[in-house]
């Protein structure tokens, strides 16, 4: 067969038939459909949860003239729980994920499990209906006004946390609820109903929380760098210091859980908390010394080897922080809901109410579902995008989150756990910037290790360019998050007042 004879056959073989064209079109449509379905899966599951929450509330309370109000309140409480899971839980597991001590899936499973356990086992069975004493209940005119004010507070808080999650800013859900209650209280009973001294105290926590968290985290990172990282014999230094640091972390978390996470099952005084902390410190130090020695045998004398020693503490800290968060912050979602149910049932509102188990279930399941559906974005933000994490830095962030709460409680200072955790991430990043540029110990160590050939200022760059190169905290994320913190209470208050005003028109 000649070349001329085969050419037309080859062209005919490579030419697409009508069937091939149709199949390609179907494949394109199928891929587009899968893409759309993937984007709609999370909102669809969230919607199913809200519908089930409403049905569950209606069936639990039974059919009556007030059932519709309870169903709507349950949907709003479920919505708030979803947004808390999407936004607030990232602070507990983000650093461990960024340090690669946990995979994203592992972090989601651990956080969801311990958030649910904390909410159901140690979640407060009695919560304040007017969050943080912002509004005086005696000045609320009647029960109907109270119910609609609580609904406005729930919806506005959830909407703001939803927006903050969308823009990638971890915010305090407690501050969101405070703003919602304040706005609804002003709309319902006037400015005189608000306890402005309490508002001022909460405002102070915007500054106190991140600063304390950042300073404490930077302090622990300095201890690790000076005493372990920049030592000639890193393994020997780690064997001395890592058990001590792990004991400090264990003691801090024991006290943290006693103060914040076990309020439902235990009410220790200051002496009992101190005894608990000292006992846990001693036991952990004794137990971890042989473990660290065993783990460090055969390790190379380099920083990469040391990081493995911090993986287990990070996993434990992620679990304990999630448990404490579930126990402490589930009330942000279900507190107003419990207040509405109590008022509907008894025709009166109270400053404190019991939370039925069915309401706690809505909060616990909603937080876990919100974490799975929308949490990964904020987890990556906290753990990877603000500043680069490794196990030692993440350890300092987790230790700061527990230690700062204990310190602030002892000093009587108002703090936000969200602001502390994110402030600790900022503190680690800014400390690294400063230490990289100004530490004589670091420069001497690097010169000794690399004979002065590495990690020096690049003379080819202009001073401004060199300064920009050494900024280890992303300023865009920093300004976005700080701005979101500042506007959380006023924005939630304005939204709540507006929503309450709308309810007056439709009632």
Spell out the blueprint of helices and strands:
Elements: H1 3-14, H2 18-61, H3 67-87, H4 90-98, H5 104-122, E1 126-128, H6 143-167, H7 173-189, H8 196-229, H9 234-261, H10 270-296, H11 303-306, H12 311-346, E2 352-354, H13 357-385, H14 391-411, H15 417-438, H16 440-450, H17 463-469, H18 475-506
Antiparallel strand pairs: 1-2
Summary, kept brief:
The chain is mostly helical and 507 residues long. It is built from 18 helices and 2 strands. The longest helix has 44 residues, at 18-61.
Strand content: under 5%
The biggest beta sheet reads: 2 strands, antiparallel
Q: Which term fits the overall shape?
A: globular
Q: Which strand order does the major sheet show?
A: 1-2
Mean pLDDT: 82
GO biological process, one term: phosphate ion transmembrane transport
InterPro entries: Phos_transporter
Family: Belongs to the inorganic phosphate transporter (PiT) (TC 2.A.20) family.
Protein name: Phosphate transporter
Q: Could you explain the architecture of this structure?
A:
The chain is mainly α. The protein has one domain (42-438, 473-506). 79% of the residues lie in helices and 1% in strands. Strands 1-2 form a two-stranded antiparallel ribbon. The protein is globular, with a radius of gyration of 27 Å. Its main location: membrane. Belongs to the inorganic phosphate transporter (PiT) (TC 2.A.20) family. Pfam families: PHO4. This is Phosphate transporter.
